[in-house]
């Protein structure tokens, strides 16, 4: 059902990611020009991640007609596999942003409605800067998911990816200027106009802008979900490094300064928890050689710094699904920090998450939570 008007006026808002989910949506990777060795390694990792999430909440995997049988054969039977066309499997960015309406009806009973926002997607940069040249199938992913679930759809002409926003569910939104103010997204919109649309569609009251995202996150132009996220209202996790010679250091200090001087929509000063990045990690010659560099997607070059971050985790119902990169020191430290930040959750390590970073993102980027109502 196509909805008229703006979500916030109708009582909708985007809930925090730690609020209960009905299930999780993921795509199935297959692009040989983005995932090395015909995506066989990535498919194993998607299977491992989906299986981990499915222990906490239902999971649906969307796979192309050519890949449906392959996906079904690799995934456990408790995971639903549906056929869907797509250009790639980044469902955080191409899937719908789910919103909820918990207003009481005229009779005084909660209505508990759910809907989705179908933003415009331009492959992270449009004609001049896209990650792949054809994204026509991705344009329909959000609409198809909402149709499968028979949920109302709000469409928006503004270019926005789900990885570029984080909310606390209480009126505060985190984002980066590097991404949302990039001229390859909405060149005819001012910062104030973008803020107005975030308020109207996400139901937020305050937007906190970090100047930049993670160093090396060029594919997304600095998505917030690699840099900073809410752990709970008033508490944020920030990608950090202690190495003053690392280009990430300047970005982390810059973000820390902004966050230290901000309050959330409720007027709270923010508690900042530092989550040290791994590495630095770089793409190897062998990894780059496994990618079909055919000109349809951005080249994957050996020696490229990988945008690896422990902030890019998924909050399931009772579980924190966190990437591990083979950097023992910082892998262990990330688990320690996340265990303290989420004391009531089981922190689940996903070893080998480097494989997802090779394609340009991580666990948060390939998942999309659907709230429970």
From TrEMBL:
One of its GO terms (molecular function) is protein-arginine deiminase activity. Pfam families: PAD_porph. Keywords: Hydrolase. It comes from the Eukaryota. The keyword Hydrolase applies. GO terms for biological process: putrescine biosynthetic process. PANTHER family: AGMATINE DEIMINASE, AGMATINE DEIMINASE-RELATED. HAMAP family: Agmatine_deimin. NCBIfam families: agmatine_aguA (TIGR03380), PRK13551.1 (NF010070). This is Peptidyl-arginine deiminase, Porphyromonas-type. It comes from Corchorus capsularis. The lineage of its organism: Eukaryota, Viridiplantae, Streptophyta, Embryophyta, Tracheophyta.
